[in-house]
Amino acid sequence: MKILFTLFLLALTVTSAYAQCKFIILVTTGDREDAGTDARVSLSVSTANGKKLVIESLKPWGQKGHNNFEKGHTDKFEGSGKCLPSKPCRMLLESNGKGNKPGWFVDKVAFTQIEQKNLSQKEKTFNVNRWLARDESPGTLFVVVDDCAK
Ligand SMILES: [Ca+2]
């Protein structure tokens, strides 16, 4: 009886566990002078009810040995984790402002979540179209794109 109960609890834990997802993030750097950066970039996306995916540094999610965030390029980042319950509508993108000519002009960030079990997808593109730089307007190293109210 005790064993059965344990098995029941175990089954409950498995079915209520969060679904696992693969995340693909495409970051497009602007095609203009000095648009590229070698700074460390962090990204956080969240749903309307505040569920978040936080990536402290995109680099380990990228291709090994690849030079990310160069002028006019789109870089791909991949990872996996707990699925977001709905499509994200808010993004925080931040540069640490380090390295040679750290100023970074970002065109857009495209986010895709693929559920590992049923392959259902959630996609959201965040248009940025501005500098993340201390010496270019608006002078901040982070940007929040919030489309949740749309
Ligand atoms: Ca770079």
Automatic annotation (TrEMBL):
<keyword id="KW-0732">Signal</keyword>
<dbReference type="Pfam" id="PF01477">
    <property type="entry name" value="PLAT"/>
</dbReference>
<feature type="signal peptide">
    <location>
        <begin position="1"/>
        <end position="19"/>
    </location>
</feature>
<feature type="domain" description="PLAT">
    <location>
        <begin position="21"/>
        <end position="146"/>
    </location>
</feature>
<dbReference type="InterPro" id="IPR036392">
    <property type="entry name" value="PLAT/LH2_dom_sf"/>
</dbReference>
<protein>
    <recommendedName>
        <fullName>PLAT domain-containing protein</fullName>
    </recommendedName>
</protein>
<dbReference type="InterPro" id="IPR001024">
    <property type="entry name" value="PLAT/LH2_dom"/>
</dbReference>
